[in-house]
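Bumping with the actual sequence this time:
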Amino acid sequence: MSETAARRATVALALVGAAVAAYLTITWAADVAPVCTTGGCSEVQSSEYAEIVGIPVAALGLGAYLAILATALRGGPGPAAIGAALAFAGLAFSLYLLVIQAFVIEAFCLWCLVSDALMLLLAAVAAFRLRAASPA
């Protein structure tokens, strides 16, 4: 995968992730239940794990997706490394939240699972991009 292809994939994935995170942030702020097919979205959104120091986790995700998107708008090893660091940090946090859903809340949020999958894909693409952008 070329750096250009990886950057394009990153833009697409980050935009979809930002849309998901924005939707969850809006529903959290409006105190309305998100549309949900898993039955656990409201439970997850209203749990004590849905915010950190008063900031919704979804808003943190939105910021992460937008930051990753920003790194994809520039080529080269520096932006690729920053994008990879953000994507892998996001993946680690996503995995933590997935464990919380499974073993603490015992409910799953469809939107959160979609975000987890997007962050996994972003981390994979970021690894390819970092390799392609690095000097040989």
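The tokens above came from a reply further down the thread. The two ends are 15 Å apart (CA to CA).
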